[in-house]
Prior knowledge:
5 domains
Amino acid sequence: MTPAKKQHKDTIVPDTSVIIDGRLTHGISSDKITSADIIVPEFVINELEHQANKGKETGDAGLAELIQLRELVEQRSDITLSYTGRKPTQEEIHMAHSGRIDALIRDVAEEKNATLYTSDVVLYKMAVAKGISAQLFEKDETPSFSLAEYFDAETMSVHLKKQAVPLAKKGSPGNIQLQRIEEESLSDEVVEQLMKEIIETAKSSENGHVELSQPGVMVIQLEEYRIVIATPPFSETAEITAVRPVARLELGDYELSPQLHDRLREQAEGVLVAGSPGHGKSTFAQALVDYYWEQGHIVKTMEHPRDLKVDPNITQYGALDNDFTNTAEILLLLRPDYTVFDEVRKTEDFSVFADLRLSGVGLIGVVHATAALDAVQRLIGRVELGIIPHVVDTVIYIEDAAVAKVYSLQLTVKVPAGMQQDDLARPVVQVIDFEEGDVEYEIYTFGEENVIIPVDAAEDSEQFSAKDRYAAAYLEKELERFVEDPVVEFIADDRIALYVDENNMAQLIGKEGKRIEKIEKQLGVNISVKPQEGTLRHSVSYEVEERGKYVAIIIDPSLQGQSVDVYDKEEFLFTATVGKKGQIKLSKEAPIAQHVLGAHTRQTLYAYM
């Protein structure tokens, strides 16, 4: 009797990609993989463990797949599972991003005369080039995507969390409500399965991108969905937040005035589109992108994540090496007519925005702001004052999916509103209501800081100017190192009374009044320094005599060595130590000596201890 031929078994070596995306377990459970010896390299296990220890969701998903793989194999008699090889060295782990681990896995497949299973196109091509049997899982073999089932036509975002009721924001920009979409809390298993599906789909889809992957958080752009997966240690438990646009509008859908439409078409080249979350600022920016494209301009975008829905001819760029500065350098080579920067948040983003704009690139920046003025204020301190209007010439504030306010910015040289002296003229950025043509705010350098002042308040003659209020705030900050608890009082426009502890007056005023004079020049106001009530000391009797080359203030000799403050009425003159025979001597050539003689003649000279 002829013995039956032994059934041939395939030998399979999987890489990390087919473990993470679940293709290996899917192949076994669907009987696409039968009669096989599966050999998992230790390099794969260690790489997944390394990712999991760093808090990466890919590592957790891969380890969960290994557990499921073991369970499936135990139920099959025609499939075996084994592990082989050594652990990678620290150097090899550090070189994983350059393909070192993939090369080691490829070597295992060659050594075992096995078929390499991979979803990595580069690894597949390298294996084929070296004559190694390889199986590439094509992009169209994608797992299910259950997250889409939580959305309907009105859903803007869904919020899913372990042991919590699923929630969704529904409606349209400016009219959004948070609703329960299920009554039962989500189990741990459901959330974990959703996370796995999202990651698998993003990695296998042509329209999916992992925009950010750090310990405890992944940001994924998958077709129209922007998905954030948060896990410990970043969050206390696993959470999925998915957002998608609920409307796509054209510029003609907005009720723009003819003059604003003309400005966008002919003049505006540095535009900030501002608004609160959910009010439609990105939707407006998207409409503006389409408009410029239809006008025959080359348009690009800078986004993180890349979630704007634009014409296929418009290329969307991310942060190159996680830095938009690098992206900007490439854009300068491409020279687009307009670039959309979504979103401008950090100081570095504003620097990139300014550099691109000053290089001649038309820019539309999207910023979070609760009012139109907030968008302007975010420029102060981040962009040099004199070039702000060259960087941003138009601010469009979106509220409830409509254009609620438009500002134009203009640089001029003038005396700021609320100031009186002509010698206080300086560069001023005017914030102008575009539709009405009225100047609403002025931005200028005040002391050592850039400030923004409401013009109406500054020009109101019945109130002290906004400039005075900033002078008070600046004084309090400037004097912290000299005096404690200064009190600022407005006497008249451009005149301030400053009340301080009498013991601090001499230090504040400085030698011959130079310190207080410097502060007066910085602020453009006159400052009278006065002692605070309760800090005055008792008066001292004295006589004044002229003696040769000096003027002597003669006080009780028993006060020798004590400090005495000398005033002309309420004006502090100096502090001196009483010398021998109770005298304070002043050289006649010193201006203060002549001041003392004049005050003594006017009977306005006082001394205090």
